[in-house]
Structure formats: structure tokens, C-alpha cells
Amino acid sequence: MSGLVNKDQADEMTVEGFAFSPLKCLLTVFTVVLTGGLFLILLTWRADIKLNCVYTKVPLKEAKKVLLKDKFEQIFEEDVVCNPSGDFSNNATPICSFFINKKIKYVWDSGARTFVKLKNVDEFMKQSDFHKCKEGLGQLTVTDRLHEYGPNLIKISVPPVLYLVFHEALNPFYLFQAYTVILWSIQMYWKFAVIIAITSVLSVTASVWETRKQNRNLRDKMKSESSVSVLRNGAQTELSSVALVPGDVILLPTTGGVMMECDAVLVEGTCVVNESMLTGESIPITKISIPDEDTIHFAYDLQRQHVVFCGTEILQGKAQEGHFIKAVVIRTGFMTTKGELVRAILFPPPLDFQFHSDFLKSIYVFLSLGLIGMAYSLYMWISNGGTIQECLLNSLDILTFVVPPILPAALTANNAFAQKRLQKMEIFCLHSNHICLCGGIDVVAFDKTGTLTEGNLDLAGVCESKNANFQETQADPTLLALDSRLIQAMATCHSLIELKGELTGNPLDVKLFDAIEWELKEQHNMGINPDYGMATPTLVSPPKGSRNGSGHIKTAPSNLEIAILKTYPFDSAVQRMTTVTKKKGAQQFDVYIKGAPEKIASTCKPETIPTDFSSTLMWYTKQGLRVIAAAHKPLNANYKWKEVDDLTRSDLEQKADFLGLIIMQNLVKAETYAAIKELHEADINTVMVTGDNILTAISVGRDCDLVKPDQTIIRVEAELSPNTYTPSLNVAYMLEENEKSNIVHDSNFIKSVQEKNYVFACDGKTFGLIRNNDKALLDRIVQRGKIFARMLPEQKIHLIECMKDLGRQVIMCGDGCNDCGALKTAHAGISLSMAEASVAAPFTSRNVHIGCVPYLIREGRATMVSAFASFKFGVAFCFTQLIAVLMIFYIGTEPSDNQYLVVDIGLAALPIIMIGNCGPHEILIKQKPMRHLLSFLPLFSVISFLFFQTLGYVGVWFYVQMQSWFVPYKFEPGLWPPNPSYEQTCIFLLSCCAAVVAAIVFSKGSPYRKPLLTNGIMAVWTIAAVAATIFMSLYESQDFAERLNFKIPPTVSMQSGSSSFRVTTPTTTTTSSQNKKTPTSSHPNEIQGGVATQIRHASREVTRNIKNRWSAGSPQQEEEHHLLGATETPTVTPRPQRAAQTDKNTLPPSYSLSSIDDATPSSSQLQRVINNTLLPAHSHESKMLSSWDQHQQAQPQTQHLSGSTAATGLLGSSADKKETIC
Fold first, then answer.
1. 476-544+558-665 CATH fold
2. Which residues have a Cβ under 8 Å from the Cβ of 1099 and sit 6 or more positions away?
3. Which residue has the higher pLDDT, 1049 or 616?
4. From the candidates 70, 263, 358, 447, which is the catalytic residue?
């Protein structure tokens, strides 16, 4: 029922088989209906849940669908296609069923009882098999292979708009946004709901547009189709490249200018190609035909010198006969090297960024807290007597507080800001998500040549060997005799071509050929050269006539000319190159070999190698010089060209004569010293990974201070013991000063140097042996290793993987030469080559030196800290608002819409986005930023902030309630907006302060970012937010207070239009009639507590006037007596006040003046006046006020009561508001 595919490979996956189950499908449909469609959303999110709910597990052979899970826990659902026709694969096994995952076809293997990746035809072929295919395929075979492998097309489909919209809309983030918009719309909070809806629509639209744009661009760049000459049934025909199948024989013109549409092995002729798209190498690469050997199996990865890859351009070719080069197609479509590159772009491995996983974990915690808050909210609203709508909506609204909805956009903005800053430094980033990974870097691996040192090598001299003795080193090789075998090796052992009138090829070969001042002439399709009796594609010779070689006049012989007949290009696997040549007029063929001194010496006859070879080589390499050796082998004079051409490379190279050493100087770049120093000061480890000699690498490492002066280098060498049934690993450790003395024979020595200042150096051979035989030792070597020399491209990848397995975060920096695999494998790869190296590396620097590395790390740290800051601010803001809302839910009120707008738009949206717009700090410090979001310090900073903010809320809550002017809030069900309250007003203002403080506190600059003031927009917002918060707290406009639903304490003066009311401290007022002081007390300003409260205050002023007039025998007593006996009218019951402030006694509908003692109304009678004059409907208020004005006109008073006028004005201004609330 389950199994493994790609077992023991990097893309190993588990596979499970499923078949449709009608019963499960019916139950799933029923569940979807019961949950209102919510369960359907879950099914679209997780393919594993969907398959387990709708399908049943079956054996893989019977499966109709398969569920795949890779090592990154990514899940894929694929359809199994049955093939009843039983087509045969290349290994003669009928293909019963198959599925396609990540553009690769997997077929059922009955022997392995699982699905296996479709095999390429070259995996079963020997080298001689390619030469048997020269006549091409038959039509029947073509049909079968076309059905098996599909068309030769790298097809990148652009998803439809509706599919992308649906896919984006089902993203949990947008579903949460939809939940928020619907809920707020029901609550009539439409202003911010519309903003969120518009933002979401724009975001989905932008995402869909960007996705389609990227897919279209990739499709247009990778889609390629051309006309190809193909041999079918022995006849040449022109076909579209889409119709090519593995096994086809294609004809490539020698004129070049052809783009390869498949991977093919050369069987006749040679060609020069440009592989910059695949490898970053901008120099031409020579490809040669594969030898016709029936004992050697073809190895795709090891014999790349015979393979012309898809996506490369043929610059020119050399045919054995005619005008075409023959090649056999071995891979098509996504199975080619170019297809693998496109698949890596389409299906990249997920980034190992701990912040993202911690963020998702925190969301689960926040949602759990939100459910608790919902339960509390539901309980409080039910307890306060809220309506069903209030209880339900306000409880559901709690979830909108616990998840910062704009945080994903903020993280994207952080990366965009960082990417823009990198572009200003001429560092280009293809994947902005890699920027954060640079923040936790603790190891930087450098290539040597072209990265730490100058890319162009200079010839320092040549040291010729004669009779097994080194001669004096010559700085100018033109001083050597023209017939010197060493000079002739420099002239012929290369793969240079003449392109547009200039020599093109490996820069090392160009430098050597220019140094000897020879000439190169190419003869394409010239037929047989009579001077040699064969075709001579390339001829080299010294310039004819006299030349000046360092002051010596030399004349080249007219007959000195050498033809380069066959070339084995430089192969990093064997670290050498070989050519077969023939001198004009000579009877024999000559072989010249050039490469690494150790490899060349291993092919030479021992008697030709100088006895001081090792010491001389060590002396040069310790000076930091790059040393190349050369050798020569004369072939038997009786050999014909056919016999020479049939010889294997090994036969050509063995038992050669050692010629000498070629010394190249590779200076360290000036920028290297400062960059290495800055990295070391920041406690970031630096490592050199190079293909050069280990002694040269150590010398350069010492020179540029990559190896510190106080560090001792221990060279590690390993070899397998051959005399045992189970080979054992012998490891030797040698000090740098004495390369031949083994300081320890036991690998346990490594443990004793853990606390000492030792570092290790090893070559690729030793690294490979240790990696395959001693994993524990490998970890210790990698942990303390500094120099890794003679490393093959795949070994560089293995080294980076070992570092990652040890928990290190690694940057790989190279110039694109043989570094592409390592650049892709590292957390962050930096290419110093602009020649298409960006395809392999996330980062590309236009400045070709390592000065970009410290800046990129500083930028990564700043971006990582910005991501943490955005998260902490978002969480702090949301939870301060949540705590504030839960507190005011206790009394049955909530913020108004305008209050929500102020905090959501004015105080939250901009800072969470712009908080990451701070550049990196100028200094790269030792302390690295936190990588884990859920570690102690980030959590403590947020929790402590919320704790102190909660204390502030609680303190303000009880402080307000202790004031003498405090009026308790009374909940009125169904009222919107709710009546203002002292508690809600103060809590809201404090929450605004908290938002501003959080933005400032979490925008910390040093030591990873620049100060807040350098972030212009954020600095302006901070000033504006502080000013706005102070303004809201102190502004004295009644209209402003009503808009924000504030209730202002009585220490604040309120003014509105022509009416005014001002609260003062207790004073005394003198009446003119009795010439005595009457105490006049001040009452709370209750304007913001509702109109009824304002009326009660005014009523007390009117009562005081009535008392004064009656005591003075006012003529208006009769009218007031009539008012006291007025019929009772309906009144509005004000909110309950404290008992000391309101007299609840009422009078019967009728009474007489005799019941009033001393002609002065009692408190109950005065209350009756208030109830009948101040609290009736609007028409009755107008009548009372009119009578009052008539009374004042008929009996003008000489006395002035400070407050009666204010009370009268207040009544007039409050009528409309009272009527509204009633």
C-alpha cells in the first residue's frame, strides 16, 4: 500500500496508493453540507486529508491515485494512468501504469513492486553502442519512444486566471480576510471592511498577475523549437526538434550558430560550445566524440566532455568528413540538463527559514487564545443582557484581534525594501526570501581563483626539466629554444579557437599561448592537407621572420609547424587535458599532456621526473603560485592515424616524459583583505574551497588572513588500506612546517585539539575517503576545516551539505566556474560572474570581489530583525487592542467605528509596513540576531510589554472610578453607537498611546539596523502619531468628542456653537435683594454622558433660581405656582446616578400653595417642576422656556447668578440631542 520512490537519492519520496470509495465520498459530502462548506476548504488545503476522506488505500499496483511526500514534508497528489496497450520501455519491460510528478515520469516496476523513475536510454549503453546508432532509428522505434518519452519540449503551462484566483482565494490568509470583511460588514463597520476588501482584491490581482507574468517569461525564455537534420532509416530528413526522441542521430553543421534542443553524445567530429546558460562559464568549451570502446559503460555525469547539452550554442565544429558533425540524442524534454534546471526553478526546495515555521506555530497559539477570548466575550454580553446579535457578533469579532491581518504583507515589504537597497550596492537578488537567510550566516565558503584572487593569471615563469633535472626558471618563455618540448606543449596543449578574429577559450590557455608569441590558424572543411596526408583542423607555428624576445633577435624556421589533430579537453575529474599532434614533416605523432603536477607526475616515467620534484613544487606553491606541469609522449613512428585515433586516452597518456613546470602568479584582490578582516571581527568562520593545489591554497589563505596568523594548520591525508577484506581508513596528520612528519597516527588526536587553535586542510581525495568511511571524523574535519583543495564540483556540494547538517548557515561565494552546484546548495549563493550565473545563484554581484559578502550579511541581519520587529509590533498592537476591548466588554460597551478607524488605519497600517525600511548598521558585530521567533527574548519583550500595558489599563480603570465626578455606565441593549463612558474613553486613549510606544520600542536600530530617524517615513509617522494622540487627549471640541464617542471628564471645558458650559471650582454668589452670600456649588460636566445628564445639571440651576425668587417675593410666583401644579407629562428616565445626586420623590398631580411652608417649594416640589419643565417632549420644553423669558422681561432682576444663563443656553442646545436619544 506504500513504498519509496527514488530510494537513497536526494529526491527520495514516500508513495501511497488510493482508489475511489463511493461510501467515503458520500460521507464526505454529508460532512461538507453539515459544516456549511468549511470542511470542503480543509479538503482543498490538504491533499492527504482529501484522499483519506474520499479514497481508500490500496496496493500501489491497483492505485488510481498516489500520494507522495518528500523529505521537506511537501505533499503531492498525482493521477495514475493505466496503459492497457503494454508499451515497452527501453529495458523491455511493459509499462502497465505510470504517473508524472514534477515533470518526471514514474513507471510501474513489477520486479521492485513500486514505481520507479523512467530510465534514460544512455543508462544502459556502452560507449561503443553509440557508434552502432549512426544510421538512425526506424519508424516503429520512433513511435514507441515518442509515446514513452513524450515530445521533446520543455512545456511550461501558464495557469488560467480563474484557477489562480481560486487558488489564491483559498489561501488561509485571504479566507481570514473574507471572514473579517463579512463580520465587519454585518456590524456596519463598513469603512474599514471596504478598505480590507479592496486591499485583498488588489493583493490577489497583483499575485495572479505576477504569477502569470513569471510563468509567461519563463515559458518564453525556455520554449525553443527549430528545424533539425535527422537520420531516420539511414536517410537524412528535416524535422522539428519537437519530434526528436532518444536514439535519434542528428547532424550539426560545422558553421555553428545552432542552438541545441536536446542532450546528445558526439560520435563523429568535435565542436566548440557556449555553456554559459547552464554553468555560468562564459568561455567556449570543446566537446569531442566518444571513443568506440565496448568495455566502458557510458556515465552521463563523468563524461560530459562528450555531451552537447540542451540549451547550449554550437559556435563552430570540425567534422571528420563532410560538413556535419554526428551526435546521438540521449535525453529530451525535462530529462535534459536544461530541463533539470527548469524543474529546479518550478519546484524549488522550501526555504529553511525558522521564522516562517515559528510564525505558523504562533498563529495556532493566537487562535487558541482567541477562542478563550470569544468565550469570555459571549459570557459578558449575555450577563449584561445584550441582544443575540450583540452577543454573537462581538464574540466572533474577537478572532479579528488575535491575528495581525497585514503581517504577511509587511514581511513581503521588508524583503522588497532590502532588495531595493541591495540593488543600489549592485547586488542583484532573484529570490528575495533568501535575504533573511543571510542574517544567520556563520560560515562563508570562498572559491579561490577569481574570487579571493584575481581572475586573470599572469605567467610568472617556466622551469624546464632536462635529463630529470630542473633548469633555471625563465620568466620569459620566449628565451627558450623554439624546439623546446615545453614550449611546444604550451603551443599545442589547449582548446583555443579563433572566433571573430580573436583567440577564445580558457583564460589560462590564452595567457600561455600569448606568452610564447605563436600563431594559430584554423582550417575548417579544407579537406586533406598534403603536408600531413590528413585533415588538419588547427595549425600552430611561431611567427615567421625575426622577432625580439627580451633583447634577443630570433628567427623561426620556416618549416616549424604543428597540427593539433585530437583534443581531450580539461576534465576536472582527472585534472588534466591531452592533445594528439603531428609536426610538419615528421613521421611520428606526439602526445602532449598538461595539468595538475601530481596528476602529470603519475602518468610519467619515473626516470624522467627530477628527484627534487616534490620540494621544488612545494617551494613554488608555498609562495602562493599556481603550478602546472607538462609532459610529452612520442608515439610509435609506424602508427597510422587510424590506429592512433583508436587508442584510448589512458594508452595515450601512460609512460610520458616529464617536461617541466609552468608557474602562474595569481594575486590576491585588494578588497579581499578588508572583507576577510570584517568577517573575522564578526566571529564568522571563513573557508576556502578550491580546485587548486593544497599548498597554493594554504599560501593564499595565509596571505589574505583567511587563516589567522596564530592558527596552526594541520594537513589531513587519508588512504584505504589495501590488504584487508574490509578496507580500513588510514589517516595521517601533518603540520604545515614539516609536511612529511605524521604527528599522530590515531584519529583520536582530533579530540585533543578541540581547545587549541588548530585548523585543518585536506584535499578532495582525502575528503571523499573520509566522507565515505568515517562520518564522525568527517564532522570534526568539517567543523574545524579551513582549506579544502583539489575539490571536484560534486565534492563542493557535499562539503556544503555537511556544513548544513551540522546546523551551520552557509554562504558560498564563487565566480561561477565549477561552483554552480555549491551556489545552489548553500543557504545563500553569491556569484561574482554576470554570465548567466544568476541562474544558479540567488545573488549576483556586479562588483567582482568579496566586499559584497559582509554587506549582504549586514543586510540579511537587518531584514531578519525587521521581520521580528514587524511581528512583535503586530502582535503587541493586536493584543493591546484585544485586552482593551475585553475590559470594556465587562461593562457592556465597545469602541465606535471611528475609534477603530483611528487605530487600524492611522496607528497600525503604516508602521507595520514601514518598520522594515531601515537600512543595515555600518558595523558587523559578533553577536548574531535571534533566529527563532519563539525563543525567550522575543517572547519576553512582547509579553512584558503586554503585561505593563495591562497594568496601565487596570490602573486607569480604577482611577477613573474613584473620581468624585465619575458616573457609572449603564448598558442599553441594541444601542449603536453605545453611550460614551469614562472607562472606554480612557482605555481607548491609553491603547493609542500603547500603539505609538510599541512602534517606537520595536523599531530598535542598533546594533543591526540604522536608527529610526534614518527611516524618513517612519520618523514622520512617529511625530504625527504622537501629536495626534496628544491632540485626541486634550482637544476641547464637543463635535470632535461626539465623532469619536468620547466622554470627557469635568476638568475639560467644552464649547459648541453659541451655547457654552464651563465647570469651575465651588464659589459663592451674592444676591442683590438680600445682600448676602448664597453658596453655589459646582456639578459635574456630564455632557458626554448623555443629554439626560446635561438636563439634570441644568435643572439644578433652574431650581436655585426659583428658590431665590420665591424667597424674594417675586411677582412671578403665580406663574411658577401654575407650573408646580401642572399636569404630569411623560418623561424620559435618565441613566441611574448616585443616590446623593438625585431626589427620586415625586408630587401628586395637584396640590396647593398652602402645602408649601414659608412659600418656599420643597425639594419634592422642585423635582416636580424639573420633571414637568425640563424632561418632557420638545414642545413642552419650548413652552417652558418661553414662559421663563416672559418672566425675565416682566420682572428684571438686579441680581446675577453665575450659572443660570449657562443653564438656559444649555437647555436650548441640548433639545435635539435629548430627542434623538429618547
1. Calcium-transporting ATPase, cytoplasmic domain N (3.40.1110)
2. 1170, 1174
3. 616
4. 447
